[in-house]
Amino acid sequence: MQLIPTQGMPLRRSLWLPILAMGVVAIALVLVTAHIYRDLTIENRRQAIQQVIQIKSGELLLKLADDSRSLASEIQRKPDFRNAVDQADQAVVAGHLEEQFHRYFNTAGVIRLRKLYVLDRNYHLLAESSQQLGGGGLGKVCVAMLDQARHRSGAHHLKTISGLCAANGTALFATLAPIGSLQLHGFIMVITEPSQNLAAIGRELGMPVKIVSSNGGVLFQSPNWPAARDQTEVIIAEYPLKADTGETVLTVALANDIHVLERELLRARNGVLTAAGIATALVALLTLFGLQRSLLNPLHRLLQKMQGLERDRKHLGEQVAVTGNREIRSLAQAFNQMTTELGSLYGKLEEMAFRDSLTGLPNRSLLNEHMGQMINQCNRENARFALLIMDLDRFKQINDSLGHPVGDSVLQQVAARLNEILRQGDVFSRLGGDEFAALLPIANGIDDTLPLVKRLLSAMGKPIVVEQNALHVGISIGIAIYPDDGAQREDLMRHADVAMYHAKHNQRGFSFYDHTLDKNSLALLTLEAELLQALTEETLQVYFQPKIAVATGEICGAEALLRWHHPQRGWVGPDEFIPIAEDTGLIAPLTYWVLDRSLEHCGDWLREGRLINLAVNLSARCLHDEALPLEVRKLLDKHAVPPEQLTLEITENVIMHDAKRAHSILVQLDAMGISISVDDFGTGHSSLAYLKRLPVDEIKIDKSFVLEVMNNPSDATIVRATVELGHNLGLRVVAEGVETEEIFNYLKQLNCDVSQGYFHGRPMTPEQFSEILRPVQA
Amino acid sequence: MTHVMKCVLLIFLSVFNAGAFAEPIVPVPEQIPGAKRVDAETVIEVAGRLKNLVIVDSRIPDDRKIGYIEHSISLPDAKTNCKSLAKIIPGKSTPVLFYCNGVKCGRSVVATKIALQCGYKNIYWFRGGFEEWKSKEYPFLHE
After folding, report:
1. Overall fold of domain B28-135
2. Are A715 and A683 in contact (CB under 8 A)?
3. Residue of A nearest to B140 (CA)
4. What is the pLDDT at residue A10?
5. Looking at chain B from residue 3 to 22, which residues have their Cβ under 8 Å from any Cβ of chain A?
6. Structure confidence by residue, pLDDT tens digits, B81-98
7. Do B70 and A158 touch (CB under 8 A)?
8. What residue ranges do the domains of chain B occupy?
């Protein structure tokens, strides 16, 4: 199973969710807290009100007790009352009580008098007011209190006691005050109803009040006491008031409207909720901001960098700088390290894949890549560029004769020299061997490239010095323009190649591609392969042109000439294929082949007694071939031809430019007895002094002079001077291009040694030559 | 609540006021040699036992307005001398009891000492005075 990157949640969202959850939890906490707080607040309020009831009712009952005591004081103020008590005169006391009761009952708003009793000093009922009190007589009302009073000792009987007591569902407040101050005469018991007094709590606190007796009877209720259905919005605080015995006598309840409180609580809750919400949002934002800075942004940058790398390896080695957590920073550091290592590794690989190791220049692959990019760019900008293909002339000779290290050095120097001339933005590449290429963006017209091309050519005009050898390395440049000369990379390359071959062939240095070149150039390209084929298929032939001894008029020798009868093209001249053979290295096998064939015929003729001197042309390349003397000797031996019968012709240019190098070979050949002839003499700029030092036996006056010798006096002078000069140096002089008898006769006059030309015979097959050769004398 | 606070404040103020209006402070002794020191309960006991007990209120008349112990005769200390004492006390051996406002009030001390000098033999000194009487919730009379 393949592991596919999952459709995972983005980091940002996975951070958002817990933060959001935390926010929700925080708000829920606030709500719960607010609820608990509300309950607590209400409970506190209730307890506070209860405490107030406790204190206030205590105060009010104290006041009631005070008032009751005052009443008792008032009742006993008259001495006759005290006397009546002392004398236990019930009628007087009762009458007195009745009077007092009505007086106080009517006037006192402060107490609600219910009953008055008078007791003797032994707590026995002496008299009572006439009002009926539910629950029966003294024996039934506030019994506990009386019991407590009765059981006091000594001076304590003088103390006034009071307290709540229940009687038949009604709450009463009793005060037992002594009659007399210093001496005890008896007691007055004042029974009041406390509910009215206690109701003052409500008035004082501004709250509705309700007073309920122990059996649930409502003793007092404010008119604004909330109805049962409204009680959700009020706090009902109840406080039970007890008798000394501990029994609850009545319960005071206050109703507190919590509308306002609720509103305040709600406002507080909403305030806290808003604050919590804002705080949560702020924390979330801060957290995210922090994470964004310390985690998300750096991660994003790393990711972008990686994606950038994926798109373009050029970014390898680029460092990414991130701030953030330690982990992120070490991740970035690891990333930087990795990308640096990969970058250098990639650079090496690229170097290996796209660079030529010898010159350090881009290789063919990289050139192709650049060309692809340039094509795209030109298509976008509607621009053009030039492709130059450059090939060194005669490089193979250098390699073959001086060895590969020298060749490599030449290539390096050529690369450096050309690279110096090219501009920034040009792409210079070594395609392989001695072939270079350059891509030149064209700003204006095609002619833009011309100065540069000329500079490249002139740069190669100066010799390259390797190991103290000054080497003349020419260069041929073929130029193709994109998109004029090809819209495809391959076409462009091929056409630049064609142009290069054309330049090489015409020895013009450079050539722009022209579609008419194509045919010829293609032919040239194939010629090389065909020449190789010809060597093996024997479509090549050796022809012989007779050389006449001017003195005797007889054939003294023959020049072996190579003819190629191409199956399709017909006759191909040496001018056409010899340069190709020289450039491709085919010249050596070709030379040996000619030597072999011509010596074979020569040997045959010698054995028939027909002695002739055989002349074979040597290419300059052959003079670099150390094996040449040995190979020539082998062939001479093979065909049993004495070396004296062989003349090797070398052109004057080759002698002048390469003889120094070829000196030893020439000396070896000379030592073998082979004659050396300087061909095309007069076309080069020979130094006679130099020529003298060489083992040269013969000079051949170039046919260009001889052809016009009868019409052009200066040519005649040259010919004459050359013959004289040659003779003075002890050399044999041969004239080429003798086409008429007139010329031959003139040569006779000049004492020229040998004559060659159509007048004596065109190049002919060995068979034809064999026929004109003087038959063997019987 | 506020009421309670008010009460506390009032008590404080009254205490300080009492201090402020007090007579030049005469250190009130624990005992007066020759006089029997009594408390409220003993006063009631003695009054019950000795029918001829004369109770002398040594306070100024203004102080007496807040209340007085039954049967007491007002004779401020400033007016106390052998002559004025003789008017209200039948004989030198008649039991006599002096009181004033309380422990900070020196009037009963002054009166007691005068009575001793005058040669009264059976002297009771109610050191706690009216304050102790009232605080113990014993009944008293108003004028």
Report:
1. Oxidized Rhodanese; domain 1 (3.40.250)
2. no
3. A181
4. 76
5. 3-4
6. 999 999 999 999 999 999
7. no
8. 28-135
